[in-house]
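Revision sheet: structure tokens.
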Amino acid sequence: MITVSVPGKVILMGDHAVVHGKPGLIAAINKRMTVSIEPDTTFRVLSTEPDDYVRHAVGIVVSRFKLDSLPKIKVTVSSDILPGYHLGSSAAVAVATVGATMYFLKKIWNPTAINQLAYEVEKYIHKTPSGVDNTTITFGGFLWYRKELEFLRSFWQLPFKLPVSLNHFFLIDTGRPKENTGEMVAFVKTQKNLQKFLDANEIQTKRIAVALKENDEETLIDAMRKGERTLEKIGVVSKKVMPVIRSIEKSGGAAKILGGGGRAAGVGYVLCYSHKPPEVAIPIVLGEEGVRLENR
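Predicted:
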């Protein structure tokens, strides 16, 4: 049996802004997914993720190495990364399945190649993915991303780790959004004064990056709060969730939506920074290791 694990991810700031050429700051987190592959009498998948997507990921590797057909294997997916909650579940499936399949079939362990093939897998669901999810999940740590042009996307892995004194990040479950990310992206494009809010969001994204590097909690909290306000102004934070965010702020912390957000009900997970999180908050660690071969 070959087992590969990968992290989930969160966007610290830059949600929606990245679609419009603004930067995003993304971090791998310590919620992980594992994919195990072992010989079997036929090809089969054991997973809560869609079977056809896992099959497609294996098929991309088979095609890359010009093999005749899908191998006779059992693919088992186990995950702490909830789908639909903006933690990169589909990208995690792609990266882990590609990595495990490459090593099982060819004994090749090459994260750069894994990332390239995982990006191709992601097109099955997202058509034109940014590449930010699979890249963060593959390489881990903190990633700075910007779409310069439609054909030019830039990624920088940032050379720092989360200071121990800033290890106060949590997730709060507000319920799965009724809207998907594509619907939310289309909605944002119709908003008035959008460029004004995107420009303001970029300022806070940069401030958060500097605050993490320089261990500046005061700036981190202020930038998260102000960045969240820009997301509220473009209409991607539901009225159900705003009181949750205000409550965290009142206790001295900061909170923001992740990914596409939501308008009608929940927004999935809210990312929270607080020394006094509510009991329902789930602790996470940012800047975790990327794709990992667990056994050979």
